[in-house]
Amino acid sequence: KSPNTSLRTGTKAAEIRQAFLDHLTCSLGRLPAYASAHDHYLALALTVRDHVVHLGVSSFGGKESKPQRRVAYLSAEFLPGPHLANHLLNLGLSETARKALASLDIDLDAVLEQEEEPGLGNGGLGRLASCYLDSLATVGVQSIGYGIRYEFGIFDQQIRDGWQVEITDKWLHGGNPWEIHRPGAARDVGFGGHTESWTDDFGRHRVRWLPAITVRGEAYDTPISGYNSDHIALMRLWKSEATESFDFEAFNHGNYDRAVEQKVDSENLSKVLYPNDSFRHGKELRLKQQFFFSSCSLQDMLRILEMQGAGPENFHEHWAVQLNDTHPAVAVAELMRLLIDVHLLAWDQAWEITRATFSYTNHTLLPEALEKWPIDLFGELLPRHLEIILEINARFLDEVRAAFPGEDWRIARLSIIDENGPRYVRMAHLACVGSHTVNGVAELHSELVKQTVLADFAEIWPEKFTNVTNGVTPRRFVALANPGLSTLLSKAAGKTWPGKLSKLSKLEALADDAEFRAKWRQVKLANKSRLAELITERTGILTDPTSLFDVQVKRIHEYKRQHLNLLHILSLYLKIKRDPTADIPARTFIFGGKAAPGYFLAKQIIRISTAAGELINDDPDIAGRLKVVFFPDFNVRNAQYVYPAADLSEQISMAGMEASGTGNMKMSLNGALTIGTLDGANVEIREAVGEENFFLFGLTADEVSEVEVCGHHPRQHYESDTELRETIDFIASGALGGGSGLFQPLIANLLEHDPYLVLADFRAYGEAQQRVSELWTNPEDWARASILNTARMGKFSSDRSIREYCQRIWKVKPGKPSE
Ligand code: 26M
Description:
Layout: H1 6-9, H2 13-27, H3 37-61, E1 70-74, H4 84-91, H5 94-102, H6 108-112, H7 124-139, E2 143-148, E3 156-160, E4 163-167, E5 180-191, E6 194-199, E7 205-210, E8 213-225, E9 232-242, H8 248-252, H9 256-268, H10 284-307, H11 315-318, E10 319-324, H12 331-342, H13 347-357, E11 358-361, E12 372-374, H14 375-381, H15 383-403, H16 408-414, E13 417-418, E14 424-426, H17 427-433, E15 437-440, H18 443-451, H19 455-460, E16 465-467, H20 474-480, H21 483-493, H22 514-539, E17 548-553, H23 562-578, E18 587-592, H24 600-616, E19 626-630, H25 636-642, E20 648-651, H26 663-669, E21 673-676, H27 682-689, E22 694-696, H28 701-710, H29 714-720, H30 722-732, H31 744-752, H32 758-776, H33 779-791, H34 798-810
Parallel strand pairs: 1-2, 1-10, 2-9, 10-11, 11-15, 15-16, 17-18, 17-20, 18-19, 20-21, 21-22
Antiparallel strand pairs: 3-4, 5-8, 6-7, 8-9, 12-14, 13-14
Helix pairs in contact: 2-3, 2-5, 3-4, 4-20, 7-34, 10-12, 12-13, 12-15, 14-15, 22-33, 23-24, 23-30, 23-32, 29-30
């Protein structure tokens, strides 16, 4: 039974208060009178951690008769956001903690502000992984999210002179109260060296790998609580260190530099997150990171298996392993190696186990993001894994030849090795061949996966492919981020909505209730006022909370087309300049997002948006009717301020490019209307909320492919559309400051190539924006549409996504029954 820890897990305000004071003095060595705000944060975090860890001990500790199949979510990235407020919400302790601290004259909100968020991801993919851990804990599935404990996560973004400047993220500097180091779980990982053959006692041919270098992976556990749940999920992150024998010989011979060099090299492995979310650089260190965390994680699963008294031949019965994109795809080869070289299973049995274990989620169709590694680099770093991959490939291609005799063209296209020129290992092919199921992240995207990147595989294995539409956690992104709305929702739809999001449909009837609409608008206005204050604090820009808040927050990328938004803004500006009486309702355009440091055009897009603000915000002719804000350092914490304040959600990627999007869900759930293309999950959001409550525009994915096949002429749009031409000429003239050459690269890109059809969609976008303005002038109609958005978004809870993974892919039964 659970250990008695009532001193530390009491849930009354007096008990929380006492535990907090105990931690302040005993764990932190601080007298309450001298404690800083950060000490208060640490003491409360440790207090709450006791509650969460206690749940963890009970949910993982049990020795059940038949252990449940566990889920391992392998992801190079996680973006959990601040933990403290989330745990308090999940445990139902928010108000008690507030009271306990208030009795000591401490303000809970000030304490919450002290937390540094772990920015261990780039954007959508990492945040999705964290939403899924939240839901796994909530629905009650034993699960571990495995990843890398980067010492430096995604950079902090500052804006200086209108440009992005990257600042190192030092998230560990104040100490991290959430993690528990587990020295007992450390695993060693090899690199380089060579392989050799040997013969076992039964005369069978065996291979072993003799790595040149060994690095140690130290395990750090962060418990992830679930909503109203007695289960927790674990986020287990690996930190690389030197093995203690790191080169004693060199050291003893006085070669300190060499000895230290190895230590430094080992530690460098988990030092920093690659700040790229759409471009592969093919850097060796990146492959090292991928293998490092994949190997540590699989070894850890084998260790747990052994503790449960099971053998490696039962691996797939105990573990369902999800590959979050191809970043951990090398795990397919590593599990094979562990099973055949280390545990001495036969190839065929090992291969069956491997394929019964893995499933793979694809998150992108962008050709420049598809991972492939030069075969020489791969073979030097992982010689045994290359041999195994070549063997997997040879056997796979033999099967294909047998099934499709004489169709040699299939072989080249299906092969795990790309042989068109310099040879590469194609990681998506490896992931697909090594998995029982492959899924995309929205219906449209899953169809496109089957038609494009993995078309040849879908032809031979149609039943392998499926869709699981992404979801987001309503706890963090509604209950925590939008307390005003949450109160309204609880009154209107009952208190259970955060765990049963389809209950929100009860709101539908209230869309026609004028009194309810008034309350709804009040909540939105309060959220906008709160954001307006923050904007002033961070940028100095004054905004009017009664204006339409038009929001585009996401990584900066050409395919997401922030520059389409900017062209529209500048065209409105020119319209008002030409005709001050033009009927254009007041709007605040809010941008946020990071650009990859080496992505020149993305940085130009940021600079144009800040330049647009400098031009427009204080122009007396505009008189405050348009404001343009670039909100710096968009991260999870800031997102929680932005989403609840959005009236309009910009989801304007070129159709076929955005796999799903998840910000689109977060804003619609918070009552924003969407202006968007038929891309990613927009398609399903529009279906859910009703086409009359969604501003659709632009080419469809099919039309885009047609244009791409037939060729297009961006200049024709420039020449035939006066508004577009004048806007582009205006930018090219240097009127935005910085001289006429500043934005030349961006302009030239649009006029000469326009790879994402910005100019082709400009007119349709402008017309959709016109419809937005018209609806906005009728606040009652807008409020009705806003309520219906929230009411109809129940499908997009990550709890629903996780239940689908459990049922259709992982074959595990959640502890908590569905709604
Ligand atoms: C690859 C190689 C080297 C360095 C970094 C990468 C890399 C890192 C992150 C590549 C892609 C990465 O993330 C892609 C991503 O975030 N995709 C988004 O996934 C979301 C969740 O499914 C979707 O909602 C978004 O549409 C999709 O863009």
